[in-house]
Design brief:
The protein has 5 helices and no strands. By secondary structure, the chain is mainly alpha-helical.
Length: 80
């Protein structure tokens, strides 16, 4: 069985920091109460950040990454 690894070409941590202020105040308050920092714990924050602008930015990044590796993806998917 073959595998294809496709990882983001740019880190998502700066996006988490950029869009953190768009999270509902209740979620931000809960995170503060639990000691979760949007900068130090960007991975956890990312799971909770369901803001449309953030999600759309991630989708655009993923689409661009896939387009940049299109020939590799095509070769992988057509390989029998």
């Amino acid at each position: 069985m073959n595998a294809f690894h496709l990882a983001p070409s740019t880190p998502f941590e700066p996006l988490v920091e950029q869009y953190y202020c768009h999270m509902p105040i209740a979620v931000r308050s809960l995170m503060r109460f639990l000691g979760i920092s949007p900068i130090d714990d960007a991975s956890i924050t990312s799971y909770l950040l369901f803001e449309p602008k953030y999600i759309n930015h991630l989708i655009d990044m993923g689409y661009q990454d896939a387009q940049n590796r299109r020939s590799d993806l095509t070769a992988f998917l057509s390989d029998e």
